Amino acid sequence: MALLSTSAMPRRGVLTLVALLLVALNLRPALTSVSPVLGNIGEALALSPSWQGILTTLPVLFLGLAAPLAPRLVRRIGPERSVFAALVVLAVALLVRPYIGTMGLFLGTAVAGGCIGIIGVLLPGIVKRDFPRRVSIMTGLYTVALNLGASTAAGTTEPLRQLLDDVAQGASLSAWQGALAFWLLPAVIAALLWLPQLRGTKPTRVPARRGARLRHDSLAWQVSLFMGLQSSLAYIVFGWLPTILQDRGLTAVTAGLALSVSILLQVSTAILAPWIGSRMRDQRTVLAVVMTLTLIGLLGCLYAPIGSVWLWIVVLGLGQGGTFSMALTLLALRAPDATTAASLSAMAQGIGYTLAAAGPLLVGVLHDWSGGWNVVGVLVSAIALGALVMALGAGRNRQVASTQGVD
């Protein structure tokens, strides 16, 4: 625990640590706050399941599409100012998206996803620069903060909607708007506490074509596709699990709580899986175990008797915590140096999240087509098996070609 001692850090390091964790808290609420009230949104705006699927897909798609913008912003204004600008735009998007109609909801959700994608690419580089001897523990804390933000939004958005509805005495169908807009507050707080990081910062030179070599590396593609396929399952859970569980008989609050508990349980394997994996000759066994747990948990939520749902929620959370943290860990283990790790991270997140966006969309389309959820099990099984194949390649004890010094 000495690595966590704040007495060993300069004052600026402590402030940076706190600010980083608060920023990380904001990387999922924009996504996980939608699914608990998705039925209310669909009713209020007359959205079919397919359009609801598009709504849950947009932020994931723009996570990937916006990732390549991060290096350009760093070259122009520096990493700290880029994070601050993304936080400000994120807060504005979260404020206005519930209140400017259907198209505004979709546009605001897309913009929020883009801001999160930019921040997600930038934070690992800042961690490596400011905490070079604490990268492992900082990655763990970063993951914990991210999961805490996701879990809190998933578990409290529907109770908040009900509270607002009670205040209005049920006279309005728009309580979901206030429940969604509430999540701008953490973004504003994080932006204010990030302000001290802007002192003395300047643009950073980042070669524009440094990652081109990776696009011809099969291992880099295996890492990227694993990132995308496991993320697709995560965003299917974020976007649709509460709706699925409500249709299977749970109340809206209980369904939101189930998602919250599943995300919260991810913290344990998010820390444990990389710790075990980094001590093994390669990571294929760990990856196979966490992917299997994820698939079992998903199929249990879809098909097992609803009375046993909490067992499958636990299994799902343990599996997905491991798959996400191992995807992040592979970015470091498969890169021979920090420069290549940054390039691999940008490639994996750009390609991976763009690919992941198809998952929530297909769930909505399949549900609209079939009128039920049974066929969704075929989809998640195919995605999980594809992720397992990629994991068996990415988990080998090999490294991608170095991009250090490549312009």
TrEMBL record:
CDD domains: MFS_NIMT_CynX_like. The chain crosses the membrane at residues 50-70, 82-100, 106-123, 135-155, 175-195, 219-238, 250-273, 285-306, 312-333, 345-366, 372-394. InterPro entries: MFS, MFS_Cyanate_Porter, MFS_dom, MFS_trans_sf. Pfam families: MFS_1 (PF07690). GO terms for molecular function: transmembrane transporter activity. Keywords: Membrane, Transmembrane, Transmembrane helix. Residues 216-407 form the Major facilitator superfamily (MFS) profile domain. This is Major facilitator superfamily MFS_1. It comes from Chromohalobacter israelensis (strain ATCC BAA-138 / DSM 3043 / CIP 106854 / NCIMB 13768 / 1H11).
